[in-house]
Amino acid sequence: MTKLANALTHEEAVQRAQELAAKIKPRFKVTEEISRQPEETIEELRETGLVHAMVPKRWGGSELDFNTLFRTAIEIAKADPSTGWIYTLAVVHAWQLAFFPEEAQAEVWEKNLDAIIASSFAPLKNEITPVEGGYKVTGTWGFSSGITHSDYIMAQGNLNVNPETGLPSDIILMLIPKEDFKVQNTWKTVAQRGTGSNNVYLEDVFVPNYRTLDLAKWCQTGVAPGQSINTNVLYTHPLYAAMPVCLTSALLGASIGAYEFWRDGLRSKVSTRGAKVAHFTHTQIRLAEVSAQLAAAEALLEKSVERLGTGEPIDTHEKLRIRRNYGYVARMCNQAVKTIVDNSGAGIVYEGHPMNRYWRDVQASSMHITFNFDWLGEMFGKIELGLELSPKDAMIS
Questions:
Q1: What's residue 344's pLDDT?
Q2: Neighbours of 213 (CB within 10 A)
Q3: What is the DSSP string of 125-186?
Q4: How far apart are CA 386 and CA 397, in angstroms?
Q5: Nearest to 141 by CA among 154, 162, 167, 123
C-alpha cells in the first residue's frame, strides 16, 4: 500500500486548525448564503492534512486520537460553527472507515487519502434486500451533513423492520460511493445552514458485503472487522461512546466563539445613554457566569476524551455515562449562549450580526439527537439503577 502523506503530531494538527480558522472566518456569511461549505474551504481542509488525522498510519494517516479531534474542532468551530461541524464529521467518518473490512478501506484510501465521507443515521423510507454478495438498496436518507462535497456516504440500514414493534432484525452500516447516490437539495433552514445537511436518494444500488458492517454489534460490543488490522486503542471503542466527541467539540467551539465575540465587544460597547457597558456590575457578573459554565463544559468533555485514551474496556454502563456527559456539555453550552444573547442587546436581531449566527447554530446543534438529555438521562438512569434498557435502545445505543 502507498503512504501518501506525512503524519502530523497533535501540536501540528492544532496549529493547522488555527491557521485554517483564520482563513475561513471571513467566509462566515458566505456559508449561510450558499447553505453549504465554499469549495475553497473544502480544498483548504484537504490541504491541511487534517482530514486524515485519525486515519491509520498503515494507510498514510496520522492516527491521532480523540484529544486532537477535540482540540482542532474547537479552533475551527470558534471561527465558523457550521464549518466546525463539517470538519469534525469528516475526521470522525474517516475514523469509522477504519472499522470496516480491509477491502473497503483499500477501496477508499488507496485511491484518495483525502476522501471525505458523509453519513446518515436517519433512514427515512427505504428497502434493503439481501442478495448474493451483498444488498440491493433503494430509499432516502436525511440529515447528511456535507454530502455535496463528499466522496462517499455511510448510511444506516435497518433490515426486516417489524411493523408492530418498529424493531429491525439487524442494523448495518453501508459505505456507498458518490456515483451511486443522488443529493436532494432539501436543506432550507434557519440554522446550521453551512452544514448543507441534505437528503440522499439511492435507487436499486448494489452494496457489496465488504462495504458493510454489523452496526448493532459495533455499538453493543465495540467489535468490528477492521480491528483485526488496526490495533491501536483508537479503534477499539463502541461507536457511540466515541463518535459524539466530534459534534460535542464543534458545539463547544461555537459556544466559545460566541463568548469571545461577546466579551471583546463589551470592552468598547456603549449604551444608548452613553454609559460604558463594561462598567456595569451585572455585565461583569454575567461574563463570569458564562465563562465558568463554558470552562465546566470543556472540563467535562476533556475528562470524557481522556477516558477514551486509557484503553480500559467500555461496558454499557460506562458508555452511557460518557454519553450522559456529552449531552450535559451540550446543555451547558446552550444555556451559556442563551445567557449571552439575553445580555447582548436588541442589535443582534439584525440579519448578518455574528451573534445572531452563533445563537442559531448553537441552538440547532444542541437539538441533535446525540444530545437529547431526556433520552440519554433515561438510559443512564436505568443502568445506574440496575434496570434493563428498552429493546430499541439496547440495539444501537
A1: 95
A2: 24
A3: EEEEEEETTEEEEEEEEEEETTGGG-SEEEEEEEES--TTT---SEEEEEEEEGGG-EEE--
A4: 17
A5: 123
The bridge status of strand 117-120 relative to strand 212-214 is unpaired
Given a contact cutoff of 8 angstroms between Cβ atoms, the answer to whether 308 and 65 are in contact is yes
- The Cα 127–Cα 357 span in angstroms is 38
DSSP state of 35: T
pLDDT confidence of residue 1? 44
Q: Judge residue 311's burial from the number of C-beta atoms within 10 Å of its C-beta, 0-12 exposed, 13-18 middle, 19 or more buried.
A: exposed
Interhelix angle 354-366/81-97, rounded to 10 degrees, is 40
Q: Rounded CA gap, 171 and 384, in Å? A: 26
pTM: 0.96
CA atoms within 13 A on the CB side of 84: 35
C-beta atoms surrounding 127 within 10 Å: 12
Residue 262, H or E segment: helix 245-266
pLDDT band at 233 (very low <50, low <70, confident <90, very high): very high
Going by their DSSP bridges, the two strands 134-144 and 123-131 should be labelled as antiparallel
pLDDT (average), residues 160-169: 91
Sheet holding 152-159, edge to edge: 117-120, 152-159, 170-177, 212-214
Report residue 10 CA to chain centroid gap: 19
Per-residue confidence band for 2, with pLDDT thresholds at 50, 70 and 90:
very low
Residue 250: C-alpha distances to residues 48, 144, 217, 307, 326 (Å): 18, 16, 27, 19, 12
User: In this predicted structure, what is the pLDDT of residue 6?
Assistant: 75
Average of per-residue pLDDT across 235-241: 97
pLDDT exceeds cutoff 50 at 281: yes
Cell 453501508, located at residue? 174
Q: What type of residue sits at position 64?
A: L
The amino acid present at 383, given as its one-letter code, is: I
Phi/psi of residue 114, nearest 5 degrees: -90, 15
In the Cβ-directed half-sphere of 224, how many Cα atoms lie within 13 Å?
Answer: 31
For 19, what's the count of Cα atoms within 13 Å in the CB-facing half-sphere? 12
Q: How far apart are CA 128 and CA 308, in angstroms?
A: 34
Section 15-41 average pLDDT: 95
